[in-house]
Amino acid sequence: VSYILDEEAGRDGGVRPQVPRGASKMGTGSREQEFGQPGAMGGPQGPRHRQQELPLRILVPTQFVGAIIGKEGLTIKNITKQTQSKVDIHRKENAGATEKAITIHSSKEGCSQACRMILEIMEKEANDTKIVEEVPLKILANNSLVGRLIGKEGRNLKKIEQDTGTKITISSLQDLTIYNQERTITVRGGVEECCNAEVEIMKKLREAHENDVASLNQQTNMMPGLNMNALGIFSSGLSVLPPASGLRGSLSASANYSPLLGPPSVLGSMYGVPSSGALSLQQTTAEQEVVYLFVPTPAVGALIGKKGQHIRELAHYAGASIKIAAPDNPDDPERMVIITGPPEAQFKAQGRIYGKLKEENFFTAKEDVKLEAHIKVPLTAAGRVIGKGGKTVNELQNLTSAEVIVPRDQTPDENDEVFVKIIGHFFASQTAQRKIREIIQQVKQQERKHQQMVPTPSQPSI
Known about the structure:
Elements: H1 7-11, H2 23-26, E1 33-36, H3 47-50, E2 56-61, H4 65-69, H5 74-83, E3 86-89, E4 99-105, H6 108-129, E5 137-142, H7 143-150, H8 155-164, E6 167-170, E7 182-188, H9 191-217, E8 279-281, E9 289-296, H10 300-304, H11 309-318, E10 321-324, E11 334-341, H12 343-359, E12 371-378, H13 379-386, H14 391-400, E13 403-405, E14 417-424, H15 426-453
Antiparallel strand pairs: 1-3, 2-4, 2-5, 3-4, 5-7, 6-7, 8-10, 9-11, 9-12, 10-11, 12-14, 13-14
């Protein structure tokens, strides 16, 4: 049982419904132990604002959880009251684990203050019991944000270490799975030094998270015909559309925490590229579309993952066939990825590939990932894509912000089809692909109607 926030009443100055004392803490159906103040999620920092904020997540040794909660929950109640935070202790998850996750929802200052108080409790407990010699601060962060925290050549992380006098390490990519998309940032130093480092680390992570949210929200109206909420294409777990009704019920999160309740990400690590042949992973689906996506050659290893693990998980997640074609020339700067699947599978697979290139720093933090995609269109539809005097293709480029090119003097293939090139960031490319598919369908429908109207030799005309 948890507080259900009446967003309308809170915004209009009405009275919130009364909640029985202790209801948010004692519900038998709760998977985690929650502690928070009913007002902590209201007011100017209420649900509408907070639903896209990045909470602070930390790992603490299991033996310290009791001390953090305190007798009858008094210690954690004091933390939530002093810091105006909502604190979720995921004590029942990962039974037998040596560490438990704690999620702190509050303002930046509230999160930092709660973190300091928890660190001080653990430090005192460690000194009193002599269980451990050192209590480092361990921050959990989604893998998609970590690359921007580290910075080019590790500069951001080195600066934080120098400025705060701490030693910071980050868990390996190999520890990630389809069920766990978070990496552990371990900060070693005194309580004061660790707290100063937490402020700087979370500042970088929040900047990256806010950039991702802004990028998604700008495009929410550009993809007609797709179930955007169900897709969750980015490895940060961001759903494209935030919940329409605000935050309801528990905000507690599991180990694969997703800020906007998106599904877990599919992640892998960078390993060598096969010297020859094509890697093919097939999922059988209806309404197949084929897209030829070109990625930087050095990124192929990251897309494949160790022994093909990442690309297998990606194909399974998206419900698509994914083939990485062998290079025509070893020095080619780009490799072709052939993706076969229906529209939602294309959206998921391409979105993950774009996200993976961003994570692995093939593009800078402020640089949009722009890739070239080719799709085949019937020769009879190519003219419609261009339009009279290039009108349609110009409108398409203005609408989608993608560059759309129908190369002239193409020789149609055996299916009487030609290529259309689309260059742009993910949403621009996706929108252009969908619009071109619409034109193809319109042309096919007109052709079918025309064939139905023309009598065949076996049917005498009247």
